Amino acid sequence: MAEEIKGRRNSTAANRKTLIRITEEGAYFRPYIGGRMHCLSPEISIQTQQKMSADIILALHESTPFYVNREYTARSTDRSHCWAMRSLREFKFLDNDTQAIYRIIQGGIYDDL
């Protein structure tokens, strides 16, 4: 596990790209263990964090790398805002008065976003 966290995976299966695509629905990925396709939606993210009894729940967002262009970053920021609204709706639906939700502010390297 420590090698994975440090980015030093050795097996062929572990070196496959795991993030498949990001859509309005969520992030599609294929774990290198098991290999079954999953979609992490804002709703599933909130449900999972609540089941884990997280004290602080974070809305699903796309964290863009610094090297993507402004156009992609703007689309990503808009998508993250939509995901935050969906996350908040799910959080309110499941609210048990013991957890808090926070939105992640993003805009990449573009101050105006």
Structure characterization notes:
This protein is of the alpha+beta class. It has helices at residues 2-5, 42-51, 70-94; strands spanning 19-22, 27-29, 38-40, 56-58, 100-102. The strands form two sheets. The protein has a three-stranded antiparallel beta sheet. Strands 4-5 form a two-stranded parallel ribbon. A hairpin with an 8-residue loop joins strand 2 and strand 3 (38-40). Helix 2 (42-51) crosses helix 3. It starts with a helix and ends in an 11-residue tail after the last strand. The model has no long low-confidence stretch (mean pLDDT 84).
Descriptive tags:
single chain, 113 residues, alpha+beta, three-stranded antiparallel beta sheet, two-stranded parallel ribbon, 3 helices, 5 strands, globular
What is the number of helical segments per DSSP (H or I, 4+ residues)?
3
What is the strand tally? 5
How do the helices and strands follow one another from N- to C-terminus?
Answer: HEEEHEHE
Strand arrangement across the biggest beta sheet: 1-2-3
Mean pLDDT, as a whole number?
84
Rg over C-alpha atoms, rounded to the nearest angstrom? 16 Å
| Assembly state of the chains shown | single chain
Q: Major sheet: size, sense and barrel closure?
A: 3 strands, antiparallel
Structural class: alpha+beta
Distance between the termini: 36 Å
Low-pLDDT runs of 5+ residues are none
Report the portion of residues in β strands: 5-15%
In which range does the helix fraction lie?
Answer: 25-40%
Which overall shape is indicated by the principal axes computed on the Cα atoms?
globular
